[in-house]
Design a protein that fits this description.
Layout lengths: L4 E4 L6 E7 L2 E7 L3 E4 L3 E6 L3 E10 L5 E12 L1 H4 L18 H21 L4 H4 L3 H12 L9 E13 L1 H78 L7 H14 L10 H7 L3
Antiparallel strand pairs: 1-4, 2-3, 2-5, 6-7, 7-8
Length: 285
């Protein structure tokens, strides 16, 4: 028995499938799988965005060479693209038999090269090395939104991460940038030192002013303490004077006798020996 059909299930989730048989194209849609005849051709158009890488050498306004490295993102309109590129696949494994990717990349990058050359010629090398966004915009303007529409190709975006001068020029630019960075760093260090010196001077002045104020306050405190002690001594003397005033007209002997009697009453005096000196004192007027 001869088998006249075969199973196709290699489109993947993002593959839009078309079947061609005897000049008739049938759109089977996304991720189709099923039995097909051996005389049927299968085309699978990818619906995922296509990343087209490039590295374009261009000359700057001052005759220096730079390499512009980046990529262009494009998407395919399956119903149109299938008529302009060969998306035929091997039914057994799903691999492409044609080179549609190389053809698509060549068409798109060829237009991008024009835009890059034209834009870079307007810039000197130092400017070109920092003009990724300007070159991206120039490429998008050249490709436009509808340039490849007849082919079923839609340009989505352009990204240029690097624009590199030749090594010698890059080294020279790098030396200049390093010098600028060093100069900037030296200036910043000098400013920080000046600020630190100013801060230190301010701290010293504050400490000196604080110390002076402390000395003044201390002198005032000592002066006040002296005044207070003098006033206290004067007060004590006055109090003593007032306490002794009633006794100034009493004989010294009588005062001594009264003191001894008071001491004996309160047990503050021990044995008393009445010798000639004590008797003489008691008799003193």
């Amino acid at each position: 028995m001869i088998t006249l059909i075969q199973l196709f299930n290699s489109a993947g989730a993002a593959g839009h499938v078309f079947l061609l048989k005897k000049g008739v194209v049938k759109d089977r849609g996304l991720a189709y799988s099923g039995f097909i005849g051996f005389d049927t051709t299968v085309a699978v158009v990818p619906t995922t965005p296509q990343i087209l890488n490039f590295a374009i050498v261009a000359q700057t306004k001052d005759k220096q060479r730079v390499t512009v490295t980046g990529n262009i993102t494009a998407s395919l309109v399956p119903s149109v693209a299938v008529k302009n590129y060969d998306f035929t696949v091997d039914v057994r494994n799903g691999g492409y038999e044609g080179e549609w990717e190389k053809i698509l990349q060549a068409q798109v990058v060829e237009r991008a090269v024009r835009a890059v050359h034209q834009k870079v010629r307007e810039l000197i090398v130092e400017e070109a090395a920092r003009s990724q966004k300007e070159v991206e915009d120039a490429i998008m303007a050249e490709l436009g939104s509808g340039v490849f529409s007849p082919n079923g190709v839609v340009i989505i975006s352009c990204s240029i991460p690097r624009i590199d001068p030749d090594n010698e020029v890059a080294n020279a630019i790098g030396a200049q940038e390093r010098q600028l960075l060093l100069t900037s760093a030296d200036t910043a260090l000098h400013d920080r030192r000046l600020k630190a010196a100013g801060n230190e001077r301010t701290v010293r002045e504050f400490e000196a002013a604080t110390a002076l104020k402390l000395e003044v306050d201390r002198a005032k405190l000592i002066e006040q303490e002296g005044t207070n002690k003098a006033a206290e001594a004067q007060s004590d003397a006055k109090a003593t004077e007032l306490r002794l005033a009633p006794l100034k007209d009493i004989d010294a002997g009588k005062l001594l006798g009264a003191a001894l009697i008071e001491g004996l009453k309160e047990d503050r005096v021990g044995t008393i020996v009445f010798g000639p000196e004590l008797l003489g004192a008691l008799g003193q007027k």
